[in-house]
Structures are given as structure tokens and as C-alpha cells.
Design brief:
Largest sheet: 7 strands, mixed
Helix content: 40-55%
Distance between the termini: 66 Å
Number of helices: 25
Shape: elongated
């Protein structure tokens, strides 16, 4: 195999050009076989194989720098930089990350994980290069879906002033996770299909060059002005008008064509955008047919593309999806918003049933939140469905546009807590802290699937900003017998005894049940409270528990700083309650990728670790 000859950066340059296509096929087969076992981002990587090969053939790594937007398309890059063995432990604890990591390789120029950041980071690397008097090439690779993120335009605006080389690769496959939406997508589609433009440009140049004496001069003059040949046929030329040289479109699966355009791009002493057309999932029919499903694939059967493990129980996203369709039927004011993730957030069914009340704004979380604020001012009940780690991007909009005005926007926050294999950039372990720091915001977390349904109904009827955070994975269906009505700021006492009181938030209620059973086996009397609200906390309950328990234990799947436990401790200290408080939370640090249950043990929020901490604390009192 040709791939066996690639064991370190730049080895690809030793491959015979006649074997490039064969190597591309081998890379695709390798990725399909490995990801079918480990899971991972398949579609985006299959679509970027030739593009990545052309970059590695045209650049000298690690001296030259490639910044991958999001980074979920960097698997071929990892293969070509000598990390083939790492795919056996891809996204496993202690193994290779599914995203670029500077600590993993000198060829990874910048850590990424969220969208629309690559042009800003690349521009910073360019400026650093020039100030340091260096001469290497910097390339930012950004997908067309990421261009719906406002940060990309902020960076393009600044890049347009450059008088030095900076290459931006626009990897255009008409997809983010779901199919792209909006004006940017329509604009790029008009360029993709402008065959008349491409044919006219070549024909015009050839005709002009035939003019005796003056032909060369006319062509050179046209090329020197941004209103050159492109402007004669393609209206707008958005990038050129901004001051960024535009090259393309070019077939992203034609390695030689890609290498040619990259040679041209290197000559431009300003920001240059190379528009590359690729097909997401290329080379694997199930991924080509279902690109959204294979964006982040679970382990699957190669022959059929079907998951190797069939889910037998609904997950929290499924429960949310069902509740949303019911709420939509009952209340015509209910509208739903997603930032390019109708499938991932569970809004696909709602969009099919109520298309006029569903809004996919693309990868634009900040816009999604302020758009929701406008909908609320207009008398509607907007529900913003978003992953916890992505909502971080809209903190200012939550504070400034929703909460200052005290608007009734509902935030349905999926993937809260530890999410596992995607690692630091995707762990949803900060939302309790950043949301509860904002005045007028209210924050809830359900103990099981029944309570998620009840909290959604409560939130839609509530006339203030409110957030419901729930974890990734199978929805807990225990404790069904405990279903007290949801009341603002009130917790739910599940078991009331003595000695130790467990105050658990959301997903940690299930863990708390196990902890309570283990403590009782050791002879300790133990109460269990489902906190329900993180803001406001149930102060009356805390006071009551302090009255007849020696130790109050708070349990949350969030960092300690700014979380539920700190609020309970602060209230206890302020009110001078005569009890001790032990906070069980995640350490104030980033948690790497790995299996969720393993990660819980590593950060000591699994039941065994918690029991040890509680007994040690109780004995010391």
C-alpha cells in the first residue's frame, strides 16, 4: 500500500504523481474502516481527502501552517503527518483527538473545535510571521457552512487590508452539519453553477490574446483591476469587492488542479480566497446519501452504513423532540430556533410539522439568541435549542438582548455535562456557571425524562428568560413515582432521613441514588433532594436540611466555580447555618476526550469516588 510509505510529515512528496488517486482511495478506505469501529467525523473527512493531499504536496510542514476551521475534517492531515497508529485509539481517553491539537503534533498549527475561527487565527499567524520577519505560508481552511458565522466576516474584513500573502481555502460542499441555509449559501451556489462565467473567461482571454500587439496588455489591465473579467459575468463578486483576491471555483477532488491554484495563490501579496468545490462523504455511498447522519457517526456496519448498536431507549434529545411537537400543536405562539442543527437538537420533526414556525439560522449562535429576543418582543414564545458548548458563544446576547429586557426566551440546552469523545471544546461543563451569573435568568435541570417534559411545559408558560439543561445520551426513566409539579425555585425531596443530605442537580440525581444506597449499606442515614433549580436555589430547603443533617453534599455535572454547590455554600455561610457543606463538582479545568463513564472516574464524580469523599468528610466532622 502507498499509505504504508507515509510515516512522517512531507512523505507524500515522495509519492509518484500517477499514484495520487490511488493514495486518495487508500486513505478513504482506511478512514471508513477505522471510523466504522471508533465512530467519528466521517463525511467531512471523506470530502476533504484530495484537498488535504494537495495542501501537503504544496506546503512544507510544520514550517508552513494550516489552520482547520472546526477541525473535524483533519483526519487525512493526521494521516499524512505520521499519526496512522493513532486511529486505533481515536477519541478514546489518552488517545488521539478527533480535532487538531498543538500538543499532539507540531503540524497542528492551532487548536480548533468550534466553527468560524480559522480566518481570525490564520490572520494572527500571518501578522506574527511578518513581525518576526519569517517567510512561511499560512493557510486557513474554512467550510462554506462556517461562513454563516459572523466571526468569519469580522476576520475577512480585517484580512482585506493585508499587503502580504494569506491563503484562505473555502471548502464548499453545501453542508455544515445539516444543509446550508441563507444568502451566503445561495451566493456560493450561483458561483458554483456559473459555467457561463468560467467558459466566457477562458474564451475572452484567448480572444484578447490573439489581438496583435495589444492583446497581452489588455488582458493584464483587466486582471489588475478587481472589476476585471470576473465582474463582467458574475454579479457582485463579494470577496473581490471586499478586497480579497478570489480564485476559483476549482474541483477539490482534482489534486493537480488544486496544486496549480495553490501555486497561483502563493504569489498573491494580499489575502486570497481559493473557492474549492467538494462533495461531503465522497467515496462512501451511505455518507454521500446521508451526509448529516455521517457528520459525526457512531460505529457502523461498512456494508450498510447502519449503526452497529441499535438504541433501545429514547435519549433526552428524542424526549425533547416529542415534547416540542406537542407544544407546537397546543400553542401557535411556540417557535423553534436552531443554529444549523435541526437533527442534532431534535427539531427536525417540529420543522416538518410547523415549517413556518421553525428557523434554522445556520452556524450563528449569537444571531440565534438576538433573533429569539426579537421574536419574544413580537409576542411569540421562542425556544432556542442548542448544545451547551455552542451556547457559550452567545453569552453577550443572552445577557444584553434577552435578560436585560427580561424576555420570555426558552433555552433548551442539549449535551450539558460531560459529552465524551469530542473533548475539551465540546464538554458542556460551564453552562450552570455562565448562565446563573446573569440577572433575570432562571436555570433548571431535570432528573429524568418525565421531568424534562414537565419543565418544558413550565418554561413555555413562564414569562421570563429560562434555561433547561439536559445531558447527552439515554434518558433516565427511573423515579417516575416522584413527579411533583414544577414550582419556581422549589426542589423536590425524594427521601428524607438524617445524617447526610444529598442535593443533586439533573443527571447527578441518578448517581445520587447509587451513592445513597452505598451509604446506607455502610450504616449512614441519608436524605436525597432533587434540586431542580440552580437559579434560584431553594433556600428554604437548604435551611431545612441544615437543621437536621450534619453534612450537606451538593452534586452537579458542572465545574465547581460559579456552580450550584458554590451557591449553596455561600447561602449557608451567609445565613450562618450550623452544618458542613461538601461540594461534588468537576474540577476547574478542561476535560479531555474519552468515554463518559471513564471520564467521571477520572474527575471523581462517579458514585464510588463520591462515597469515599463523603465518608472521609463525615468522619472528620
Amino acid at each position: 500500500m502507498i499509505l504504508d510509505c507515509i510515516n512522517q510529515p512531507n512523505d507524500i512528496k515522495c509519492v509518484d504523481p500517477e499514484e495520487y488517486n490511488e493514495l486518495a482511495d487508500e486513505i478513504r478506505q482506511f478512514l471508513i474502516e477505522k471510523i466504522s469501529v471508533s465512530g467519528g467525523h466521517l463525511g467531512s473527512n471523506l470530502g476533504a481527502v484530495e484537498l488535504t493531499m494537495a495542501l501537503h504536496l504544496s506546503l512544507n510542514l510544520p514550517d508552513d501552517k494550516i489552520v482547520w476551521d472546526v477541525g473535524h475534517q483533519s483526519y487525512t492531515h493526521k494521516l499524512l503527518t505520521g499519526r496512522k497508529e493513532g486511529f486505533d485509539v481515536l477519541k478514546k481517553y489518552g488517545g488521539m483527538s478527533g480535532f487538531p491539537k498543538r500538543k499532539e503534533s507540531d503540524c497542528d498549527a492551532f487548536d480548533t473545535g468550534h466553527s468560524s475561527t480559522s480566518v481570525s487565527a490564520g490572520l494572527g499567524l500571518v501578522k506574527a510571521r511578518d513581525i518576526n520577519g519569517e517567510g512561511h505560508t499560512v493557510v486557513s481552511v474554512i467550510g462554506d457552512g462556517a461562513l454563516t458565522g459572523g466571526m468569519a466576516y469580522e476576520a475577512l474584513n480585517n484580512a482585506s487590508r493585508l499587503e502580504t500573502n494569506f491563503i484562505i481555502i473555502l471548502n464548499d460542499n453545501n453542508m455544515s452539519i445539516a444543509e446550508n441555509v441563507g444568502g451566503v449559501s445561495k451566493y456560493l451556489q450561483s458561483i458554483r453553477t456559473a459555467d457561463a462565467y468560467k467558459g466566457f473567461k477562458v474564451g475572452l482571454e484567448n480572444s484578447l490574446l490573439k489581438i496583435p500587439k495589444y492583446g497581452d496588455a489588455v488582458v493584464d489591465t483587466l486582471k489588475r483591476y478587481k472589476s476585471g473579467i470576473k465582474q463582467l459575468v458574475v454579479p457582485g463578486m463579494f470577496f473581490e469587492d471586499m478586497g480579497i483576491t478570489y480564485l476559483g471555483p476549482v474541483d477539490g477532488h482534482d489534486i493537480k488542479a488544486m496544486m496549480k491554484v495553490l501555486r497561483e495563490a502563493k504569489k498573491v501579496q494580499k489575502a486570497v480566497l481559493v473557492h474549492v468545490i467538494t462533495k461531503k462523504g465522497k467515496g462512501y455511498l451511505p455518507a454521500e446519501r446521508h451526509p448529516a447522519r455521517f457528520h459525526g457517526a457512531e460505529p457502523f456496519e461498512i456494508e450498510t452504513g447502519l449503526p452497529t448498536k441499535n438504541r433501545t431507549k429514547a435519549n433526552y434529545t428524542d424526549v425533547f423532540s416529542t415534547v416540542m411537537t406537542k407544544l407546537g400543536a397546543r400553542n401557535e405562539k411556540v417557535v423553534a430556533i436552531t443554529a444549523a442543527m435541526p437533527d442534532g437538537t431534535g427539531l427536525k420533526r417540529f420543522s416538518n410539522m410547523y415549517p413556518e414556525r421553525f428557523f434554522d439560522v445556520g452556524i450563528a449562535e449569537e444571531h440565534a439568541v438576538t433573533f429569539a429576543a426579537g421574536l419574544a418582543v413580537g409576542g411569540l414564545k421562542p425556544i432556542v435549542a442548542v448544545y451547551s458548548s455552542f451556547l457559550q458563544r452567545a453569552y453577550d446576547q443572552i445577557l444584553h438582548d434577552v435578560c436585560i429586557q427580561d424576555l420570555p426566551v426558552v433555552f433548551a440546552i442539549d449535551r450539558a455535562g460531560l459529552v465524551g469523545s469530542d473533548g475539551e471544546t465540546h464538554q458542556g461543563i460551564f453552562d450552570l456557571s455562565y448562565l446563573s451569573s446573569i440577572p433575570n435568568m432562571h436555570v433548571m435541570a431535570p432528573k429524568n425524562k418525565w421531568e424534562l417534559s414537565d419543565m418544558m411545559k413550565f418554561a413555555v408558560a413562564f414569562d421570563h428568560p429560562i434555561a433547561i439543561r439536559y445531558p447527552r445520551g439515554e434518558a433516565y426513566d427511573g423515579l417516575k413515582e416522584f413527579r411533583a409539579p414544577v414550582v419556581l425555585g422549589k426542589s423536590e425531596i425524594l427521601y428524607e432521613e438524617g445524617d447526610i443530605a444529598l442535593l443533586a442537580v439533573g443527571s447527578m440525581v441518578k448517581t445520587a441514588q447509587t451513592v445513597r444506597a452505598q451509604l446506607k449499606d455502610r450504616g449512614y442515614s441519608c436524605s436525597l433532594v432533587n434540586a431542580r433549580f440552580v437559579k434560584p436555589i431553594d433556600e428554604e430547603m437548604v435551611t431545612a436540611m441544615a437543621g437536621f443533617h450534619k453534612l450537606i453534599v451538593t452534586m452537579e455535572e458542572n465545574v465547581l466555580s460559579g456552580g450550584f454547590g458554590e451557591k449553596v455554600r455561600e447561602y449557608k455561610d451567609r445565613m450562618k447555618l450550623g452544618t458542613d457543606v461538601l461540594n461534588i463538582a468537576l474540577p476547574d479545568e478542561y476535560v479531555e476526550h474519552g468515554n463518559v463513564e471513564l471520564l467521571k472516574k477520572e474527575v471523581a464524580i462517579d458514585s464510588d469516588s463520591i462515597v469515599k469523599k463523603i465518608i472521609a468528610e463525615y468522619v472528620s466532622l
